[in-house]
Amino acid sequence: MSQAGAKAATPGTPALLRRNLALLAGTLLLAAAALLVARGAAWKGADQRTVEVIGEVRGDYQPWFRPFFTPGRAERYLFGLQAALGTAALTGLAGWAAGRRESTDQQTLRAAGVVAACSLVAGAGLAFVSSEHGEIQALISAAQGVCLGLPAFLIGYLLGRRAAAVAGHAKGAS
User: Fold this and answer.
1) What are the two backbone dihedrals, phi and then psi, of residue 154, each rounded to the nearest 5 degrees?
2) How would DSSP label each residue in the chain?
3) Tens digits of per-residue pLDDT, 115-167?
4) 131-137 own/partner pairs: CB under 8 Å, 24+ apart
5) pTM above 0.85, yes or no
């Protein structure tokens, strides 16, 4: 790899900061565009819409099965748990892969630790936010999952660094 390519990928460089800011801006633009497109739309879940359409098409329809478990108010917590576990698994794996291929210094690890701690605090704070609208509540739960995914990325990164170090020592010993 060239010297310029190595410098552009180094944590803390202006090129990396500009790239990350551009990715953040693109993400925010996509979210804003989705909200603008859906402006005035009815905030109903797919299940509720399906029941309405079936009722319109065939009013005498009777379901074949009845649910054996209805979560009630616990539904938002189950969705949050699902989002947190999925996000933690994916971000932990991504962190492990990134840690296997990159070396880092202690200052970068400290900064990552601070970001992970802040995301845990934000995720815990979101536990106290509630909404009457199911989709908004689902968005809050998904945000909690993302907040919990950042520490999972850091843990995966550290485990990946450790695995890379062990693999490096094993290659050096042979």
Assistant:
1) -60, -45
2) --HHHHHHTSTT-HHHHHHHHHHHHHHHHHHHHHHHHTTT-----HHHHHHHHHHHH-TT---S---S---GGGHHHHHHHHHHHHHHHHHHHHHHHHHHH----HHHHHHHHHHHHHHHHHHHHHTT---SSHHHHHHHHHHHHHHHHHHHHHHHHHHHHHHHHHHHHHHHH-
3) 777 777 887 777 777 777 666 777 777 777 777 777 888 888 888 888 887 87
4) 133/43, 134/43, 134/45, 135/43, 135/44, 135/45, 136/43, 137/76
5) no
